Amino acid sequence: MQIAQINSKQNPTFKSGFYNVTRELDSSVMLSRALVDGCGCTIPWIIMANNKTERKEKSRRFLFDYAIAYISPFLALPLLNRLSARYVGKLTKNFWSNNHKVIHISNEYLKDAETMMAELTKTGVNVKKNPIESLYYKLVSKKEYNSKLDIDELLQIANGDKEKLRNKIIKSKKAVFITDYISTIGVLGSVPFINNEITKSQTGQKGFSAEMSMADKEIVEKRAEKHERSKRKKYIAFIGVLGAVTFGISKFVFSALTSKSSGKIIQGMKNNARWFDYNKGIYMSRLPFFMGFMLTTLANILAARNGTERKDLAIRQGVGSAIFFGGDLLLGSLFTNISDRLFGTKLRADDSSKSIISKIFPKIKRLNQVMEEVEQGKISKANKHVSAGIFWANMLILMISMGYAVPKTINKMIKKDVEKDVNSQKMNDVSHNEQYSKPSHMEDFIKHLKK
Fold first, then answer.
1. CA 211 – CA 357 distance, rounded (Å)
2. How far apart are CA 85 and CA 77, in angstroms?
3. Residue 354 above 70 pLDDT?
4. Are 387 and 370 in contact (CB under 8 A)?
5. How many CB atoms lie within 10 A of CB 113?
6. What is the dihedral of CA 249, 75, 402, 298, to 10 degrees?
7. Using CA atoms, how far apart are residues 341 and 352, in angstroms rounded to an integer?
8. Cα(402)–Cα(57) distance, integer angstroms
């Protein structure tokens, strides 16, 4: 403990690295979810698996999910943003033009051309490299990175028409959303179906992996017969729902931004279009991520091989969603409220709402905002330390609550369900044997001989 403290004091990069990592996790619901799932769900769930086959299945799921969680924002989306800006919105003259980052502007500033230009003028002057760009400019040393957006060039591409530029940006953002949502959620939703097939190929069994050490192969497979007959239809149904939701969201959000209607619904969507932003152009916002998570939950339940696995997944996913998507907000708000009242920190966000809920659970500043305010001298450094501490305390509580009590309860439920089927099968076998072991009456035997 003392060594860690000495190192952190002597090496300032230790501290800055810690806060930068914490800030990235705090700003991305996908990354923080991956952290909670990995440390609070997957690892303890793998350890507490009922047998080796189930352990392998959960490990594969962990690797698939983590690969997608990191490949999507850090590798796929930076490229997708450039492709969309270059070939869909036609906002840039070449693939490596830095002007593609104009589509990082929040949807809330795209409700009209004047609001867009005011925001671009104010904030569109300095943009940072992402991992793909950092690698590119290291490999191609002759190329120099331009950290500023060329607003004049953007207007020139749009023939000087601000409204046309706004529509080009919206068109690019819409293409990014549709492509990313269908590919990311589509792959995540396909994982359970693929995982089942891998298990079947490796073990030669068709049933729920958790039950394979609890009953004979015949009983396990009999419990999975119905799913085997309908699994293709279920997968097609998932793809259909995913497509409908994706195009429904894109139509509702992005069509509202380009609509000239003054109706309450359209105006409400314009004012709240930020709910569907990608932070830094790569991190999916909480609402679309939650909706995507619900779609992957649907895929998991459809891929369940029998009723017991469906209950297993419903409990795991349901509890996980409630704790993660609600628990972190409530805990963070509660800790922030206590800190501001007792220690005089300034971590509550400005909120004009005067509802009872907002008073009990006030909106909080993200660590990114807190760090910016510290750098600007608006608040003390203590706020940064407390904000980071609250984030990690929050994550730790979520991981503990999701990782241990849930699998223990579920494992008991699985054993109970399988035992019920095994006992039922034994009763049927006994009944069947008794039926054919009863001695024949002499009269029946004589009648049979006469025939």
1. 45
2. 12
3. no
4. yes
5. 15
6. 40
7. 19
8. 19
Q: Which residue has the tokens 């009242």?
A: 341
d(CA 76, CA 376): 34
pLDDT, tens digit, for every residue of 414-431?
Answer: 778 777 766 665 555 544
pLDDT given for residue 165 in this prediction = 94
Mean pLDDT of the chain: 80
Contact of 34 with 65, CB cutoff 8 Å:
yes
Residue 424 has what pLDDT?
65
Is the torsion defined by CA of 119, 23, 59, 308 positive or negative? negative
Structure tokens at 314: 């419903």
Q: Which of 294, 366, 281, 283 is nearest to 324 (CA)?
A: 294
CA gap 281, 301 in Å, rounded? 31
What is the number of H-type helices and E-type strands within the chain?
A: 21, 2
How does DSSP assign 113-153, residue by residue? HHHHHHHHHHHTT-----HHHHHHHHHSTT-----S--HHH
Specify whether the CB–CB gap between 325 and 384 falls below 8 A. no
DSSP code string of 8-62 = HHH-HHHHHHHHHHHHHHHH-HHHHHHHIIIIIIIHHHHHT-SSHHHHHHHHHHH
Bridge partners, residue 279, by sequence: 283
Contact yes or no for 155/265 (Cβ under 8 A): no
Look-up of token digits 């501001």: 340
pLDDT value at residue 8? 41
Place of tokens 């909480």: 286
State pLDDT tens for residues 50-107.
Answer: 889 989 998 998 888 878 877 777 788 888 999 999 999 999 988 888 888 888 888 9
Between CA 73 and CA 295, with CA 195 as vertex, the angle to 5 degrees is: 55
229 vs 239: CA distance, rounded Å: 18
Instruction: Measure the CA dihedral 318/320/322/328, to 10°.
Output: -170
Token duo for residue 401: 């609550």
Residue extents of the structural domains in the chain: 1-48+312-422
Q: pTM of the prediction?
A: 0.71
Q: Give me the phi and psi of 349, to 5 degrees please.
A: -80, 155
Q: What are the tens digits of pLDDT across the range 222-275? A: 888 999 999 999 999 999 999 999 999 988 888 888 888 777 888 888 888 889
* 17 vs 61, higher pLDDT: 61
